[in-house]
Amino acid sequence: MKIFTILWYFLKMFYQLLCCSFSFLTFLFNVFWFMCNLASAGIPWFTVLLVVICVASKFVKLKSPDEKQLLRLLAAGSQGLYPEDLSFWPIAHRGAGYDAPENSKAALKKCITRGYRNVLVDAGLTSCGKIVIVNRLTLEKAGLSGSIALHTLESLKKINIAELHPMGKHFEAEYVLTLKELLDFLEDQRLTVFLYISDNSSQMLECLKTTIKENPLFIQRIILISRSPITVYQ
C-alpha cells in the first residue's frame, strides 16, 4: 500500500512538472511570436531611417571646432593665443583636410592662416619615380584603383582633388603636388611638414636621398615619418 502511495505522489509531481514545462514553453513561444511581429513592423522603418541618415551625411557638413577655444585648451596659462604660447603644438592631418582639399596647397594655406605651424601630409612614389603628395583614398575617390606606384605622374596630375572634397565648390582647382612643388611652396612659409611615407621601397628611399641632397630646405622644414624604423634610419 505504501508503495502505491509513493508511486501516486511521484506521478502527480511528474504531471505538475509537465504542466509547468508546457506553460513555460507556451510563454516562450508567445514572446518569440511577439518579437517577430515587432521586428517585421519595425525593421523596414529602421532601414529607411538608416538610409536617410547615410544620404544626409553626404550633404550635411558638421560645424568646425572653435579655433580660439581649441587654442585655449592647448595653451599653458599663457596670455596670448599664438602657437608660440602653446604647451604642445597641434598637427593638422593632411593639412586642413576637413575644411579644404586634403594634401593640397589650399589646405596648407588655410593652416597658415589659422596660425598652425605643423601639418602632416601623405607621400607616395609613382610608377615613373616621382614623389607625390597624395593619399591612396584620394585615388579611390577619383576612380583609380590600386596603389600610387601603379600610376604615372601624368595621370595623377589630371585629378582635380578639389572636386573630390565636400567643400570643393569653394576652392579653385587643386591638383596633386610633387615633393619638389611642396618644397618650393615651403620656401616662403613658416611651416613644418611631417611627411608620412607609405612606400618603403628601395626606389622611394633613393628618391628621398636625392631630394635631400639637392634641397637643403628638406632637413629644415620636413620631418620624415614611416611605420618602418629601418626606412627612417636609412
UniProtKB/TrEMBL annotation:
Q: Which InterPro entries match?
A: GP_PDE_dom (IPR030395), PLC-like_Pdiesterase_TIM-brl (IPR017946)
The molecular function GO annotations come to: glycerophosphodiester phosphodiesterase activity
The answer on whether this UniProt entry bears the keyword Ribonucleoprotein reads no
Write the record's keywords in alphabetical order, separated by commas.
Membrane, Transmembrane, Transmembrane helix
Which Gene Ontology cellular-component terms appear in the entry?
plasma membrane
- GP-PDE domain: from which residue to which, for each copy? 88-234
Q: Which domain of life is it from?
A: Eukaryota
Query: Where does the sequence pass through the membrane?
Result: 12-35, 41-60
Please tell me whether the keyword Transmembrane helix is annotated for this protein. yes
What GO biological process terms are annotated to this protein in UniProt?
A: ethanolamine metabolic process; N-acylethanolamine metabolic process; phospholipid metabolic process
What protein am I looking at? GP-PDE domain-containing protein
Organism for this UniProt entry: Lucilia cuprina (Green bottle fly)
